[in-house]
Amino acid sequence: MKTQDKLTALEDYLNLNYLITFHPENEGGYTVMIQDLEGCISEGETVEEAMKNILSAKQPWLETAWKHGDFIPLPSHFILDN
């Protein structure tokens, strides 16, 4: 995998595996987020629906950040092989 300063294509970021966190809600369903991508949050009635929704939210989040030249962090659990 490339280092962060060498990620030169949006596709590189879209292919990264970010840690996804699920939070069960008292009323039912789940809130789901990618903490490394601030504000990338969604929800779903089931774990499967929540996963589908957060993956659908990830792409426009990254596309918008890329378009505006915003900093896009690597996944916090990312380990570089030298």
Automatic annotation (TrEMBL):
Pfam families the UniProt entry points to: HicB_lk_antitox
InterPro entries reported in the protein's UniProt record: HicB-like, TA_system_antitoxin, TTHA1013/TTHA0281-like
Residue ranges constituting the HicB-like antitoxin of toxin-antitoxin system domain according to the UniProt record: 18-77
Protein origin, superkingdom: Bacteria
SUPFAM superfamilies: TTHA1013/TTHA0281-like
Parts forming coiled coils: none
Name of the protein this chain belongs to: Uncharacterized protein family UPF0150
